[in-house]
Design brief:
This protein has about 400 residues and is of the alpha+beta class. It has a domain of about 130 residues. The chain has 8 helices and 20 strands. Strands 1-9-10-11-12-8-7-6-5 form a 9-stranded antiparallel beta sheet, sandwiched between helices. Helix 4 packs across helix 6.
Length: about 400
């Protein structure tokens, strides 16, 4: 069952909740001068929120609390993943044919209801395999058994298969509506499938067909989950914590308003600055979907009823609106390089100018990996590594400047 708090009620709840007592409201390289600090605010992990990183003046972020593997990678045209997705769709169609189509027309209404229920259970089982497949791939990647490309292929396969399964649920519901005495509710199952579909995966799928929607992606994994980050026009971040999902436990929330209050504690800044926040309840799968449009972008998160923690999170942020918490600056080889850092190891901006202060066109590489080229004002936003790194700016003339950027 899908229930939601309408935007107007949500705003009323925010107004009432803010008066409840105890409610949460909201390095330098050789030859370079010392780093210039504009402001230094350290993000922290709140143990009570199982990996939700709390930071000031922006949205909190779901974290891995120490990744086993963190790398940049590119993803280009990939016929294999398209063929695998087609194969999955054919298998789903065949399963439905065996379970339903070849017997349905000649069956009685009672038999048709039973056939529909059997097909529904098989689709649910197929849906559950997506999480198992994803978790196995992420853990294999974290231990070095799976390449970046193989991991992304798995996530994209789930992205497409989730859509195919959801479509089959639609077909089941339509048939059920035509059978007297039959009633199938598929909305919660479809909403659960939506967790496997995201804007990052849509852009990777576009890349698989040669459209170059994104230039590169940062992949971070551990046995507990993964984080994907990329920059197109916006900063896109997708995070999942497998250990924050427990369907064997009853939901911790007595009702939807109680889940709403808890989500306010988890994302206070987003609630305080957002417009028309909404929390939807998917009772049969024990999930609560949090949706916010706020002044820096959009937040979608899935709160697990069993653990009371965030299981999956999707963030779309405008990097130009994110507050700078620290700045490093270097004067080197006739150039000035400045790196502006945002909270929670979010996107960073490098600016390159010459000795006269004029913007410089330069190709930027991090640890030898190219992340882009500065624009007309000499700047470039990029996704930083999780640790300190070497950044190189190379001009078209061949002149290069390399600096060491700290992770603080």
């Amino acid at each position: 069952m899908n229930r939601s708090i309408p935007p107007l009620l949500a705003l009323l709840l925010v107004s009432s909740l803010t008066v409840v007592p105890g409610m949460a409201t909201s390095g330098s390289s050789a030859g370079a001068p010392a780093a210039m600090s504009v402001q230094h605010q350290v993000a922290t992990i709140d143990p009570a929120n199982s990996g939700l990183q709390t930071v000031p003046n922006t949205t909190n972020r779901l974290s891995l609390e120490g990744a086993s593997r963190s790398e940049y990678t590119e993803y280009g045209p990939d016929l294999g993943v398209a063929l695998a997705s087609t194969d999955d769709e054919l298998r789903i169609d065949h399963t439905q044919y065996v379970a339903l189509d070849r017997q349905f027309d000649d069956a009685t209404a009672t038999e048709q209801s039973a056939l529909l229920q059997t097909a529904y259970e098989r689709l649910k089982d197929r849906s559950d395999t997506l999480r198992t497949r994803e978790e196995q791939a992420v853990k294999a990647h974290a231990t070095g058994e799976l390449s970046n490309t193989q991991l992304l292929k798995t996530l994209l396969r789930n992205h497409q298969e989730a859509a195919a399964i959801s479509e089959s649920f639609d077909e089941l519901e339509e048939r059920s509506d035509r059978v007297p005495g039959s009633s199938l509710s598929v909305a919660d199952q479809q909403d659960k499938l939506e967790m496997h579909r995201s804007r990052i995966r849509e852009q990777l799928w576009s890349n698989a067909y040669g459209n170059d929607a994104i230039g590169y992606i940062s992949v971070e994994t551990s046995e507990k989950g993964y984080v994907l980050e990329t920059l197109s026009e916006d900063y896109l971040r997708e995070a999942t914590r497998f250990d924050n999902r427990d369907t064997s436990r009853a939901t911790q929330f007595a009702d939807l308003p109680e889940a709403y209050e808890h989500s306010l504690d988890l994302y206070p800044w987003a609630y305080n600055t957002g417009q028309s926040p909404a929390v939807n309840e998917y009772t049969t799968v024990q999930l609560y979907q949090i949706n916010h449009d706020h002044e820096q972008g959009e937040l979608k998160a899935y709160l697990d009823g069993g653990t009371g923690d965030i299981h999956r999170e999707r963030q779309t942020l405008d990097p130009d609106t994110l507050p700078t918490i620290r700045q490093q600056e270097w004067q080197k080889d006739g150039h000035k390089l400045t790196v502006d850092k945002t909270a929670a190891n979010g996107p960073q901006k490098v600016t390159v100018v010459d000795q006269d202060g004029e913007p410089v066109t330069a190709t930027i590489t991090i640890g030898g990996f190219e992340v882009g080229e500065t624009n007309a004002d000499g700047s470039l936003w990029y996704v930083p590594p999780s640790t300190g790194y070497e950044l190189t700016a190379e001009r078209p003339t061949g002149t290069t400047v390399t600096v060491a950027v700290s992770n603080s």
